[in-house]
Predict the structure.
Amino acid sequence: MDAEYDVVVVGAGPGGSTAARYAAMGGAKTLLIEKRQEIGTHVRCGEGLARGLLDQAKIPIDKVWISAEMDGARIISPGGFSFDVDEAKAGNEVGYVIERDLFDRALAKLAGEAGADIEVKTSATEIIKENGKIVGLKLICKGEPVTVKTKIIIGADGYESQVGRWAGIDTTIQPSDIMTCVQYRLTNIELDPKYTEFYAGSIAPGGYIWVFPKNDNTANVGIGLGAHIVKHGGEPKEYLDRWIANNPKMRNAKQLDMVAGGCSINAPLDSVVCDQVMLVGDAARMIDPMTGGGIAHACLSGMEAGKVAADAIKKGDYSKEFFQTYEKAWRGELEEKLFRNWMAKEKAQHLSDETFDKLISLLAKVGLDNISVINILKAIKEYHPELVKEFEDLL
């Protein structure tokens, strides 16, 4: 590892690796660090990925990291009403279920091929400032303290991001904007291998249960509950275990692994940059508030941040003002959708099982040419206007 870089990217998930790749492609001397000893391990993720992302971020498709290709998604109400969303209607929001460890390593490989240096088992411990200006990072690299000078830091260190906090970027969110999650990989279950499934209602207060097929009899089966509803740490697992036990399709299920953690489901932040620092992906709270999906957003924000970082190095301007180019880019791609989905999430958290049944049966009956939160709200307004009064200004 050299002692000086133009750009240091903290975190080698999809956002970090993509940011490092584009920064290096733009000519910036770039270092990508990952605190774990192996990129892609211990990932807390349902592993769903939209097809449209791959072309947009110029990520080459490799069947090595694709477990299954989906035809669509199925939304199921407490009373058993279901609404299928096929890929054509979903506008490329339905695509692959992947192997995140292999996908993450593939993205890191692209970053390395672009010229970025990569160090695993390396964690950032402190931002170094001189006269109020960031001049570097303190790291622990394979057990040894290291100091690296840098002009720009890209924080891609996930939901628990420390880079943002150290830099003074306000990433605080309310408990109602946090989802606490547990996921199993289950095998020997009955499922439709071409559809992801989402179950809503009192079975998962403030959230939902998901089933993401990996093959004909294996799936990621998880639950997310609103953190403001959870009374104790083991409650999400209790809800999930109870649902699995009552589901005849899973009566012979065998558990292969388990992951747990939290994710943000908030409205877009006011700012994700400051002088010399940009945040991407989960660190920037860019997870979709309705679906919990974050891979696509991480890659897209990482691409934009990497491009802006390379341009900043060329022009010698690492200011918050210069980084507004990044703010405009990611907001242009994501902000409106994230905000609308946050508004819809706020409403959905308080719906009764009876109301969920009404909504899903309505959507199944009327159908939609294109599925989005805004189109769903418009359909609901026509038949149940009392449910969308809060969203009048968005319709």
In short: The chain has a mean pLDDT of 89. The first helix runs from residue 14 to 25. The chain has two domains: 4-47+99-173+268-342, 175-264. The first strand starts at residue 4 and ends at 10.
